[in-house]
Automatic annotation (TrEMBL):
Keywords associated with the record: Membrane, Transmembrane, Transmembrane helix
Domain TadE-like: 16-58
Lineage: Bacteria, Bacillati, Actinomycetota, Actinomycetes, Propionibacteriales
UniProt xrefs under InterPro entries: TadE-like_dom
Transmembrane regions listed in the UniProt entry: 20-44
Protein name: TadE-like domain-containing protein
Pfam families referenced in this protein's UniProt entry, alphabetically: TadE (PF07811)
Amino acid sequence: MKISGWARKRKRNERGASTVELVLYMPILMLAIFITIQFSLIYLGNQAASAAARETARVARTTLDRGQAETAGLEYTNRIGKGILEDVQVVVTPVGTQQVRVVVTGHAQKITPFVDPPTVTQVVQGPLEEFRADN
């Protein structure tokens, strides 16, 4: 079977096709990479907020001092979440007479300037600790 002249020209004209494909697919690839990185930063912000909430709850449960617990939570967040979690708020509230709830809220780091920073919230609740002397 003889290949016509048109088919030979067609084959030669495919030069540069991979460059065109790269130009078309590169924005999609970059978007996928940015989305992956942003979700990773949100996950990391969640982990930092969770650790801060656990530490704040530990201080609140043992000292029974709301102000001291909130201060400890903010200091802990500044140590472990610096650059990961921004605009952190720590709220300690008693739940009844036997428990305490800690809510840590902040914004995860963002990589795009035109999107609002994602909000991260972690809640920890636990019983107050009561120390009693042995009888």
